[in-house]
Amino acid sequence: MNQDSTVEVMVAQELLPELAEDISHIDLLVFLDARAGGVPGTVEVTEVKPAQVASGVFIHTLTMETLLSNAGSLFGHAPKAMLISVAGESFDFASHLSPNIEAALPLLLQKLREVIYADDEKSDPLALSSAGVVTC
After folding, report:
1. What pTM did the predictor assign?
2. Among 51, 68, 119, 136, which one is most buried in terms of CB atoms within 10 A?
3. Positive or negative, the Cα torsion across 20, 24, 25, 28?
4. What is the pLDDT of residues 115-134, one digit of tens each?
């Protein structure tokens, strides 16, 4: 990212179709999410590709892939997207994180920085002007 770049953080309880227009205006989208399964506190980074769905298809549950597909088909641009996820330990309601998850936060933030600034480090000709981070 260059000096004039911006990063916007969006917090969403769930992915909504309305986000498709917002993400169509950015170059890079990073989803941050907790996942069930795996060793608690393990951080993974994966690329997210738009879903291959028929035009005009809307479903009751919106996935990251479908959101990207909607941005591309409805608004002409689907950003490059990455998912940074951490394996959860407990999904019960609480006012604090479990110790394993709290210990994983520095690594999650490091991975987020690496994803956002990856183009600079690789001297990629793509100069990001904007990035979005969605926490789910």
Report:
1. 0.83
2. 68
3. positive
4. 988 855 544 434 555 667 76
